[in-house]
Specification:
This protein has 3 helices and 10 strands, in the order βαββββαβββαββ. By secondary structure, the protein is an alpha+beta fold.
């Protein structure tokens, strides 16, 4: 049985900082939509540096969710064979904003020089407003070390 343990805000931000691909969840024509995106955590903002212009237009001003996770088959370093079979999930909620060029990208480049990709897309920022995470463990609470 999986038993979820809440993660602290700091643990969630640390996990966000270690990844580069996540899922942005938003509304498109009154329906929920999910898109995988490359991102960088800059301070307490998720920055999608190379969003397609159409996606950036849809996200601008919307309250969105952003999610990353790790299945139980791997440990926190991404190696297969997590001994307890657990995993984790982090969800951030915030209002997405298109970052105005060139100023937004200039600030991003100073904060995280490798964050800007090669596609010439539009940058979108999502402040880490509400941040929640859980770690799952297939052992019961009384069996944990």
């Amino acid at each position: 049985m999986e038993v979820p343990d809440p993660l602290s805000r700091r643990e969630c931000l640390d996990l966000l900082a270690r990844r580069t691909v996540g899922r942005v969840v938003f509304t498109e024509r009154a329906m929920p939509a999910i898109r995988p995106v490359r991102y960088t955590l800059v301070g307490t903002h998720i920055v999608i540096a190379d969003a397609e212009p159409r996606l950036a237009d849809m996200l601008d001003g919307q309250v969105v969710a952003f999610q990353i996770d790790q299945e139980g088959a791997r440990d926190p370093l991404g190696r297969f064979g997590d001994l307890n079979g657990g995993g984790w999930s982090v969800v951030v909620t915030g209002a997405a904003r298109r970052l105005p060029p060139p100023d937004g990208l200039t600030r991003l480049h100073r904060a995280a020089p490798g964050a800007i990709g090669r596609t010439g897309g539009t940058a979108v920022g999502i402040p880490c407003g509400e941040v929640r995470g859980i770690r799952t463990d297939q052992r019961s609470g009384s069996d944990r070390a």
